[in-house]
């Protein structure tokens, strides 16, 4: 089953060539505790992570510093895996992880019952940033945040 986005606001994407980063921001209609849980619990992540909206085939999360995560989507005849290691976790404020040669930072900021989520992907070099853009990481991550917005919008607190 595909997850259809009902959220109205779009995800903002900024490519910062000075710091070799992709920065995505979005306001979600749920408090940080709910959004953090949706981001870190396998039963939730499997429902919204895939940019195309399909449920993940596999979703493993060891939510601790040094713990690993692994997300696998299989559809349309292909398999894609995203895996990494958590560096820091401070529920429900932020988490930092390493994946695909980059550092990811996810911030959950309270805004009057809503959450401003910021995803920052620090690529480390112009070459890696260019590679990420060619792979569509910016577009795919924006779609993933759109899916998350729709998911928390329809999931009871």
Question: What is the gist of this entry?
Answer:
This protein has four helices and eight strands; from the N terminus they run ββααββββββαα. With 157 residues, the chain is of the alpha+beta class.
Describe this structure in words.
The protein is of the alpha+beta class and 157 residues long. It has a domain of 96 residues: Alpha-D-Glucose-1,6-Bisphosphate, Chain A, domain 4 (2-Layer Sandwich), CATH 3.30.530.20. The chain has an eight-stranded antiparallel beta sheet, covered by helices on one side. Strand 4 and strand 5 form a beta hairpin.
CATH level-4 homologous superfamily of the domain at 12-38 and 86-154? START domain
Summed over residues and divided by their number, the pLDDT gives a mean of 92
The CATH architecture of the domain at 12-38 and 86-154 can be named as 2-Layer Sandwich
Structural class of the helix and strand makeup? alpha+beta
Task: Reconstruct the topology from this structure.
Layout: E1 12-16, E2 21-28, H1 32-40, H2 42-48, E3 58-61, E4 68-75, E5 78-90, E6 94-99, E7 102-111, E8 114-122, H3 126-135, H4 137-154
Antiparallel strand pairs: 1-2, 2-8, 3-4, 4-5, 5-6, 6-7, 7-8
Helix pairs in contact: 1-2
